[in-house]
Amino acid sequence: MLSLILIGGLVFAAPNAPPPPKPASAAHASKQDKIRALLALTGSDKTGENILAGLRAQLPAPQFEAMARVFKPAELTEKLVAIFDRHYSEAEIDGQLAFYKTPLGKRMIAEGPAITAESVKASQDYALGKLVELRKAREGAPAKSP
Protein backbone atom coordinates (compact mmCIF):
# COMPACT_ATOMS: atom_id res chain seq x y z
CA MET A 1 0.00 0.00 0.00
CA LEU A 2 1.21 3.51 -0.81
CA SER A 3 0.97 6.26 1.82
CA LEU A 4 1.61 9.98 1.52
CA ILE A 5 4.10 11.63 3.88
CA LEU A 6 4.46 15.38 4.34
CA ILE A 7 8.01 16.55 5.06
CA GLY A 8 8.93 20.21 5.06
CA GLY A 9 5.94 21.10 2.93
CA LEU A 10 6.69 18.42 0.33
CA VAL A 11 4.56 15.32 -0.17
CA PHE A 12 6.28 11.98 -0.70
CA ALA A 13 4.80 8.59 -1.45
CA ALA A 14 6.08 5.90 0.85
CA PRO A 15 5.21 2.23 0.87
CA ASN A 16 4.01 0.80 4.18
CA ALA A 17 4.06 4.16 5.98
CA PRO A 18 2.16 4.22 9.26
CA PRO A 19 -1.41 5.49 9.03
CA PRO A 20 -2.00 9.18 9.80
CA PRO A 21 -3.02 10.02 13.38
CA LYS A 22 -6.69 9.59 14.14
CA PRO A 23 -8.69 12.80 14.36
CA ALA A 24 -9.87 13.91 17.80
CA SER A 25 -13.01 12.21 18.97
CA ALA A 26 -16.29 14.01 18.30
CA ALA A 27 -16.65 14.63 22.04
CA HIS A 28 -13.18 16.18 22.27
CA ALA A 29 -13.84 18.31 19.17
CA SER A 30 -17.11 19.43 20.76
CA LYS A 31 -15.25 20.49 23.92
CA GLN A 32 -12.71 22.41 21.85
CA ASP A 33 -15.53 24.12 19.93
CA LYS A 34 -17.03 25.15 23.27
CA ILE A 35 -13.66 26.52 24.37
CA ARG A 36 -13.44 28.56 21.16
CA ALA A 37 -16.96 29.87 21.87
CA LEU A 38 -15.89 30.80 25.41
CA LEU A 39 -12.81 32.61 24.11
CA ALA A 40 -14.98 34.49 21.60
CA LEU A 41 -17.57 35.36 24.26
CA THR A 42 -14.93 36.80 26.60
CA GLY A 43 -12.91 38.47 23.84
CA SER A 44 -9.90 36.27 24.55
CA ASP A 45 -9.96 35.09 20.95
CA LYS A 46 -8.62 38.55 20.08
CA THR A 47 -5.50 38.15 22.24
CA GLY A 48 -3.20 37.67 19.25
CA GLU A 49 -4.68 40.64 17.40
CA ASN A 50 -4.31 42.79 20.53
CA ILE A 51 -0.68 41.75 20.89
CA LEU A 52 -0.01 42.69 17.28
CA ALA A 53 -1.69 46.05 17.77
CA GLY A 54 0.51 46.69 20.80
CA LEU A 55 3.61 45.68 18.87
CA ARG A 56 2.64 48.03 16.04
CA ALA A 57 2.76 50.91 18.52
CA GLN A 58 6.07 49.82 20.06
CA LEU A 59 8.21 48.56 17.18
CA PRO A 60 9.74 50.37 14.24
CA ALA A 61 7.79 49.60 11.05
CA PRO A 62 10.33 47.14 9.55
CA GLN A 63 10.47 45.08 12.77
CA PHE A 64 6.69 45.12 13.11
CA GLU A 65 6.20 44.02 9.50
CA ALA A 66 8.63 41.13 10.03
CA MET A 67 6.80 40.10 13.20
CA ALA A 68 3.39 40.42 11.53
CA ARG A 69 4.50 38.00 8.81
CA VAL A 70 5.28 35.24 11.32
CA PHE A 71 2.93 36.00 14.23
CA LYS A 72 -0.40 34.35 13.50
CA PRO A 73 -3.21 35.27 15.92
CA ALA A 74 -5.17 32.12 15.02
CA GLU A 75 -2.19 29.97 16.06
CA LEU A 76 -2.11 31.70 19.45
CA THR A 77 -5.86 31.12 19.83
CA GLU A 78 -5.31 27.40 19.24
CA LYS A 79 -2.64 27.41 21.96
CA LEU A 80 -5.17 29.01 24.30
CA VAL A 81 -7.72 26.34 23.36
CA ALA A 82 -5.18 23.65 24.30
CA ILE A 83 -4.46 25.35 27.64
CA PHE A 84 -8.15 25.59 28.53
CA ASP A 85 -8.62 21.98 27.38
CA ARG A 86 -5.93 20.81 29.82
CA HIS A 87 -7.21 22.80 32.78
CA TYR A 88 -11.01 22.60 32.53
CA SER A 89 -13.47 19.78 32.07
CA GLU A 90 -16.20 20.12 29.49
CA ALA A 91 -18.72 20.65 32.30
CA GLU A 92 -16.60 23.50 33.65
CA ILE A 93 -16.44 25.07 30.18
CA ASP A 94 -20.24 24.74 29.96
CA GLY A 95 -20.54 26.48 33.34
CA GLN A 96 -18.28 29.33 32.24
CA LEU A 97 -20.25 29.76 29.01
CA ALA A 98 -23.47 29.97 31.02
CA PHE A 99 -21.96 32.39 33.55
CA TYR A 100 -20.51 34.80 30.99
CA LYS A 101 -23.96 35.09 29.40
CA THR A 102 -25.46 36.38 32.68
CA PRO A 103 -25.57 40.09 33.55
CA LEU A 104 -22.72 39.65 36.06
CA GLY A 105 -20.66 37.66 33.55
CA LYS A 106 -21.20 40.34 30.90
CA ARG A 107 -20.14 42.99 33.41
CA MET A 108 -16.97 41.02 34.23
CA ILE A 109 -16.17 40.85 30.50
CA ALA A 110 -16.78 44.59 30.12
CA GLU A 111 -14.76 45.60 33.20
CA GLY A 112 -12.01 43.01 32.80
CA PRO A 113 -9.63 45.05 30.63
CA ALA A 114 -9.83 48.12 32.91
CA ILE A 115 -9.37 45.99 36.03
CA THR A 116 -6.41 44.21 34.49
CA ALA A 117 -4.78 47.49 33.40
CA GLU A 118 -5.28 49.05 36.83
CA SER A 119 -4.01 45.91 38.57
CA VAL A 120 -0.87 45.82 36.43
CA LYS A 121 -0.24 49.52 37.10
CA ALA A 122 -0.82 49.12 40.85
CA SER A 123 1.53 46.12 40.93
CA GLN A 124 4.24 48.00 39.05
CA ASP A 125 3.86 51.10 41.23
CA TYR A 126 3.98 48.99 44.40
CA ALA A 127 7.10 47.10 43.28
CA LEU A 128 8.78 50.35 42.21
CA GLY A 129 7.98 51.91 45.58
CA LYS A 130 9.56 48.95 47.36
CA LEU A 131 12.67 49.23 45.19
CA VAL A 132 12.95 52.93 46.11
CA GLU A 133 12.59 52.04 49.80
CA LEU A 134 15.34 49.42 49.50
CA ARG A 135 17.66 51.83 47.70
CA LYS A 136 17.09 54.56 50.28
CA ALA A 137 17.62 52.12 53.13
CA ARG A 138 20.86 50.99 51.52
CA GLU A 139 21.97 54.61 51.17
CA GLY A 140 21.04 55.36 54.78
CA ALA A 141 18.19 57.74 53.97
CA PRO A 142 14.80 57.35 55.67
CA ALA A 143 12.54 55.09 53.59
CA LYS A 144 9.16 56.35 52.44
CA SER A 145 6.56 54.65 50.21
CA PRO A 146 4.83 56.65 47.48
Q: What's a quick, concise take on this entry?
A:
This protein is mainly alpha-helical.
Give a verbal description of the structure.
The protein is mainly alpha-helical. Strands 1-2 form a two-stranded antiparallel ribbon. The chain starts with a strand and ends in a 7-residue tail after the last helix.
Distance between the termini: 74 Å
Number of strands: 2
**What low-confidence regions span 5 or more consecutive residues with pLDDT below 50?**
1-22
Largest sheet: 2 strands, antiparallel
Give the helix proportion (percent range): 55-70%
Give short descriptive properties of this protein.
146 residues, mainly alpha, 6 helices, 2 strands, disordered N terminus
Topology record:
Blueprint lengths: L1 E6 L2 E6 L10 H17 L4 H12 L2 H10 L2 H15 L2 H10 L3 H37 L7
Antiparallel strand pairs: 1-2
Helix pairs in contact: 1-4, 1-5, 2-3, 2-4
